[in-house]
What does this fold into?
Amino acid sequence: MFITGMKKKMTVLVMSLLSSSVLAAYPEQAITLVVPFPAGSGTDAVGRIFASEMSSRLGQPVIVENKPGANATIAAQQVAKSRPDGYTLLISTNTPLSAAPWLMKNVSYDVVKDFTPVARGGNLPFILITNASKPFKSVTDLVDYAKANPGKLSYASGNSTGIVAGATLGNTAEIDVLHVPYKGTPQAITDLIGGQVDFMFTDLASGIPFVKSNKVKALAVSTAKPSVLLPELPSMEAAGINNFDINSWNGFLGPAGLPDEVVSTLNKTINEIVENEEVRQKLANLGFDAFSGTQQEFADFVKQQYVLWGDLIKAAGIEKN
It folds into this structure.
């Protein structure tokens, strides 16, 4: 009995040492960073900068894999079901984790139980843009037109933030507008430019190039306060829409059960990236406000956002589909 007990203890000790050795060496192979939106989207552009910086700091390739569709839940589901070894990560926004569970009937993951939050990446502010040929010079112009012509204006969406922001504007301003959903932001902006839809809320990274080339017009940022990245644009509140404060966040997560040592390594790396002034400027040029913090802060934030977006969606009267 004594020998058998010693053998078991030795086995546990050896397994523990081997496990520690493997974790200490993390990463030993390429990491896949799953992006839940198409190439050309704001999150894709931000994700590729982070992937490049993570690769140089971790000494292994970080490969971007675009998995768009179903309000970003396809990508989230893939990561939730992957091995918790740190080699499959999700760069998420509020779309799959804060909004989709309230918008869709069949979301196959639990926001809290099925993921390990790793680190916050920052915020991707949204702007309200319109077709360049429309006569709207302000949010007030758009709202006044919509009230005078109920049901004649349409808004596009390429993600859940766009869906909720458009519905919230309709509810708050008491206007009747038609929602036209798209699988991704690039397609939605293409149709906005082409005149198939009239306005939309989009992230800065996706929208600003078209604003600068005068293909669309920007009317406001989607927050209660002005954005430091676009101080010339009024906030929705300054534009006359009270109690309107919708923002998109970015962060990194792995599947549930990610080892503490892996989480610590990744969190430290992401914090180093956002603290680098040159990288922060690159991200700011995309319209991304980069910052991070501790793993626990991000975990708490994910829970808080899940509740907040549930309240926003209920207030806007959006039903699950």
User: Anything to note?
Assistant: DSSP finds eleven helices and eleven strands in the chain. The domain at 29-124+248-315 is CATH 3.40.190.150 (D-Maltodextrin-Binding Protein; domain 2). Confidence is low (pLDDT under 50) at residues 6-23. The two ends are 61 Å apart (CA to CA).
